[in-house]
Specification:
TIM Barrel; alpha/beta; single chain
Length: about 240
């Protein structure tokens, strides 16, 4: 079964909207873990609009499941990540002002930058995943990432979510299946994230047997407003158990 890693950025967004410490990111994360989530994901951004580095450090010191830190590998980001030493770091090609991650890495043209970044993280004992768009990445680029020392890719799933909602999913899903199969054949692990939810997750997981981990934040937190954490986590885990 794939691991469910819950992105708690939106918990911090709610806290920051009012100031103070309610809701408390660590306390809510511990609840999420107690209800069965196998990972916590955070994506600290330069403007500190949601998760902040003190939150990340507190999580690392107090949670029992794997911590996944996402972000653009600036020097400051890499310094913080290597200091905190999460189980996994997911590299995304986000500019500082982007609202949410909306593109995968263009490998060719960034080889030196990516290779040095991956090497630095691996030297700190951190598993490295890279956010990629299955519609744009090709076999040579996947091989290049593998040869640079990357451990995994995270497939950017917005196009799948849109196609699933419009019931035009078969052709789009085949792109993700091919990407996952190729990556797996090269020894790369396969993660996925972005716009996965209770309507589309089970179908995705059933059709991507290589899937190791999903990272879900916005949709899951929205569902928790209706169902509460316990039932919401159970519903998402049930989607993954069907695969």
């Amino acid at each position: 079964m794939s691991i469910l890693s819950v992105n708690v950025n939106k918990v911090a967004t709610l806290r920051n909207a009012r100031g103070g410490d309610r809701p408390n990111v660590l306390q809510e994360s511990l609840k999420i873990i107690s209800f069965g989530a196998q990972g916590i994901t955070v994506h600290p951004r330069p403007d500190g609009r949601h998760i902040r580095w003190p939150d990340v450090l507190e999580l690392k010191d107090n949670i029992s499941v794997e911590l996944n830190i996402e972000g653009f590998p600036s020097d400051e980001f890499l310094e913080k990540v290597c200091e905190i030493e999460p189980r996994q770091c997911t590299l995304v090609p986000d500019p500082p002002d982007v609202l949410t991650s909306n593109a995968g890495w263009k490998v060719f043209g960034n080889e030196e930058f990516l290779a040095s970044t991956i090497s630095r993280l691996k030297g700190a004992g951190i598993r490295v995943s890279l956010f990629v768009d299955p519609h744009e990445i090709n076999t040579k680029e996947l091989l290049a990432l593998r040869d640079m020392g990357a451990d995994r890719i995270e497939m950017y799933t917005e196009s799948y979510a849109v196609a699933h909602a419009e019931e035009t999913v078969a052709e789009v899903l085949s792109v993700f299946q091919n990407c996952a199969q190729l990556a797996h054949s090269m020894g790369l692990g396969v993660n996925a994230g972005h716009d996965l939810n209770l309507d589309n997750l089970a179908h995705f997981a059933e059709n991507i047997p290589e899937l190791k981990e999903v990272s879900i934040g916005h949709a899951l937190v929205c569902d928790a407003l209706h169902y509460g954490w316990e039932k919401t986590i159970a519903l998402y885990l049930d989607c993954l158990k069907q695969s």
